[in-house]
Amino acid sequence: MRRAVPVLGALLAAGLLLAAALSLITVRTDMADFLPQGGTEAARLVMQEARAGSATGLILLGIEDAPTAELARISTASAAGLRDSGLFSVVAGGQAALADTEGADLFARRYLLAPADFDTPALRRGLEDLLRQLRSSTAPLATQFGLADPPGAFGALLRSWIGSSQVRTVDGAWFAPDRDRALLLARTRAGGMNVLAQEAATAAIEAAFRAAGPGPARLLIAGPAVFARDAARAIKADVHRIATVSTALVMLLLWWRFRSPLVIAAIAAPVVLSVAAAAVAVQAAYGAVHGVALGFGATMLGVSLDYPVLMIGHRKRGEPAAATRARIGPAFILAVVTAVLGLSAMVLSGFPGLAQLGIFAAAGLAPAAAAPGWRRPG
């Protein structure tokens, strides 16, 4: 019992340090951390758009398996619910897809986005076309945009974006051209790679759909944000499965070898300490810890189990722990340095997430190797 006190005390202290570390760190779930930085200005621009561009937050919704009029009602009600949630910058399904502020920004930059001819014949043609529009049913739009845009650049820009779209409108709702499927287009305020924000957006979509009283209708969801969310879910499930299975197998192996709860506690204490130190190191270096780096890093730090096992397994009967450390010290230090160098190579990766993983694994090994007092109880 007297020998169990320091072992259990060390494990408890390591557990408290881990709890404190996890309470202090900020965990990120943005999958953009696992995209490369890009070696040129063009590549960096593309990667920036992939991380936080407006297209990354697009979500396309389909509603089907109900009568056409009912689908239009559900679509309109669902769109209203999405707007009320405050999580979406754009919700379009029959109304204008652009918010007023976005339309104003595009109009202000129309000559940068679309070619315009300012010579006299072109301006004459533009003004004559504007006069025809003012006499037609499109007079409100012509008054709003045409008078300030005689060359018609903004209208040409919008027509080029619409392209050959064949989306039809039924009772004020968009429908697929070849089947009874109502369509909605939404864009989240958060970037598509922000997994937690996309989880919240998905929950809001499902809640708005249920609130619309869909009956037998079915909701379909697709888009870059959905793909990023599903990928993150799959990675998280893999991390949990690998961590659970590997921990169980290691515990069974240690129990088969030592048959002592105190020995297992003595082995576990440095591992817990290493995870706490690694999390703090990554937080200090990056200001946040990615969830994938935390999950996989904790699994990789399983190598720190070797250090107390080496000390306990090489200790001769009756030999003091200090004598064991002195005897196997050179080989032990070589093993630690080799592992740290091997794992820290990931820091040089062009992927921020992998760099975090390298720091996490390498920073955790040092305190695990330096943890004192590995004594075999009994």
What's the count of strands? 8
How much is the average pLDDT? 76
User: In the CATH hierarchy, what is the class of the largest domain?
Assistant: Mainly Alpha
**Overall structural domain count:** 2
Number of H- or I-type helical stretches:
15
What is the CATH topology descriptor of the largest domain? Multidrug efflux transporter AcrB transmembrane fold
Provide a quick synopsis of the model:
With 378 residues, this protein is of the alpha+beta class. It is built from 15 helices and 8 strands.
Describe the secondary-structure layout.
Blueprint: H1 4-24, E1 27-28, H2 41-52, E2 58-64, H3 68-85, E3 88-92, H4 100-108, H5 110-113, H6 120-134, H7 139-146, H8 153-162, E4 168-170, E5 173-175, E6 182-188, H9 195-211, E7 218-222, H10 224-258, H11 261-286, E8 289-290, H12 291-300, H13 306-313, H14 321-344, H15 352-370
Parallel strand pairs: 1-8
Antiparallel strand pairs: 2-6, 2-7, 3-6, 4-5, 5-6
Helix pairs in contact: 1-11, 3-9, 9-10, 10-12, 11-13, 11-15, 12-15, 14-15
Overview of the structural elements:
With 378 residues, the protein is an alpha+beta fold. The protein has two domains: 4-39 and 231-370, Multidrug efflux transporter AcrB transmembrane fold (Up-down Bundle), CATH 1.20.1640; 55-228, no CATH class. The protein is built from 15 helices and eight strands. The strands form two sheets. Strands 2, 3, 4, 5, 6 and 7 form a six-stranded antiparallel sheet that branches. Strand 4 (168-170) and strand 5 (173-175) form a beta hairpin. Helix 3 packs across helix 9 (195-211). The radius of gyration is 31 Å and the shape is elongated. The protein starts with a helix and ends in an 8-residue tail after the last helix. The model is unreliable at 372-378 (pLDDT under 50).
